[in-house]
Amino acid sequence: MRGLGPTSEKILLLLLGGVALGFSGSPTRYARVAQAIKKEWKAINRTSLYRSIRKLYESQLIKYVEEKDGSVQIVLSKAGHQMALRYKIDEMKILEPKVWDKKWRVILFDVPEEIKNLRDTLRTKLKQLGFIELQKSVFVHPFDCRNEVDFIIEIYNARQFVRFIEAVFIDNELHLRHKFGLR
To answer: Among 60, 144, 171, 182, which is most exposed with the fewest C-beta within 10 angstroms?
Structure first.
């Protein structure tokens, strides 16, 4: 869908963040996510917020659910959920830890020729995340990125084609350390 402005994108991502609360697992993480979502909601200009919500509703990216107490909840529709995930994937970054654990994350994929668009998309996304291509469908990164890779695999429905390996040795490690700026 074209024509969504930054406020609409932010609304979709914040609603997706609400979904993430249910999967947060720990009370500390839940509180952190909830606090961040609350802060972001308050930062949106009210006029722009209402206009964007109306546009999202008309585009069927969100829906209203009336509660028993008469209040109305805004939730992502299936199409809105997919669009929010696409925005999220474009903003995704792999965080650099203070101390490198000296492990290499190696991603391998073997995508059939009939769906080479998927192969190209995986290659592009991994490069955008800072992976270095060792061979045509083999990429490496020094930092923990399992969640990010799993997210990409799920978004593109590529689980059957992708393998994730953690390695402690790669024979061209000095070259890779230099590329990633590691000592």
So the answer is: 171
Taking alpha carbons only, the member of 54, 50, 69, 52 closest to residue 4 is: 52
64-96 per-position pLDDT tens digit: 888 888 877 888 888 887 777 766 777 788 889
Mean of the pLDDT values across residues 101-109? 97
Q: Which CATH architecture has domain 104-180?
A: 2-Layer Sandwich (3.30)
Domain 6-91 coded CATH 1.10.10.10: yes
3-class DSSP assignment, residue 70: coil
Backbone angles phi, psi at 109, to 5 degrees: -145, 150
Half-sphere exposure of 147 (CA within 13 A, CB side): 7
pTM over 0.85: no
Q: Are 144 and 97 in contact (CB under 8 A)?
A: yes
* Residue ranges covered by each domain of the chain: 6-91, 104-180
> Please, where are the H alpha helices in 25-141?
27-43, 46-58, 78-91, 116-128
